[in-house]
Design goal:
InterPro entries: CCDC171. The chain is mostly helical. The protein is built from three helices and two strands; from the N terminus they run H-H-H-E-E. Helix 1 (about 1-65) packs parallel to helix 3 (about 95-145).
């Protein structure tokens, strides 16, 4: 009987120790899950801060130039780095996936807008150049044909490049009392002056 009581006490002691270890393991698992959630949240916050700082850098480059170039608007999208020691590569949960997807979508829209902006800027530059060439040809044709010509001060200036500070853009410098017509077939120049 005594042996039976002793083994019961040992089993009871072993059972209580096992239950205590089980509780400690459960608490460790909960603490580890909380730590992983904090790490994922911190990674998302760091990622969004990196995205914001890179966008601010691009914004600064664009605003510092009057006519931005392709290099000025290039945005290098930061990568998401999760600081968790998972050999299989923990994704960080649905919040991280949604956050990365949102930033990728925004980056795609940004690239399309920048591409169109560069195309519009290039087209404006080529039209400004064409306007300068046509004005020069018009002035030269007027001089060679004996048509009343303007002095250098009266010839409308070449339109300046469009800048963010000048809302009039392309039309600056095109004001003149004369209307010019250029016939394509014969390239003759006719000037009608309303002054």
């Amino acid at each position: 009987m005594e042996l039976h009581d002793q083994s019961l006490r040992q089993l009871s002691k072993y059972l209580s120790q096992s239950q205590r270890e089980k509780r400690e393991l459960q608490e460790d698992v909960i603490a580890a899950e909380k730590a992983l959630c904090r790490a994922a949240r911190d990674s998302v916050v760091n990622y969004l801060q990196a995205v914001e700082s890179s966008l601010e850098e691009v914004r600064g480059r664009v605003l510092s130039q009057t006519t931005p170039t392709k290099g000025d608007v290039t945005w290098h999208l930061p990568r998401m780095h999760l600081d968790v020691p998972d050999p299989e590569g923990l994704t960080g949960g649905p919040e991280v996936v949604i956050c990365e997807g949102f930033v990728r979508s925004f980056a795609g829209v940004y690239e399309v807008v920048c591409s169109r902006l560069m195309n519009v800027q290039s087209e404006l530059d080529s039209r400004n150049t064409l306007a300068c060439v046509l004005k020069s040809e018009l002035h030269n044709a007027g001089v060679s044909d004996g048509v009343r010509t303007h002095t250098a001060e009266n010839v409308p200036a070449c339109p300046p490049a469009v800048t963010a500070t000048d809302p009039r853009g392309f039309f600056v410098g095109l004001h003149s009392p004369a209307i010019y017509y250029l016939e394509r077939r014969s390239f003759s120049v006719v000037m009608v002056n309303f002054s």
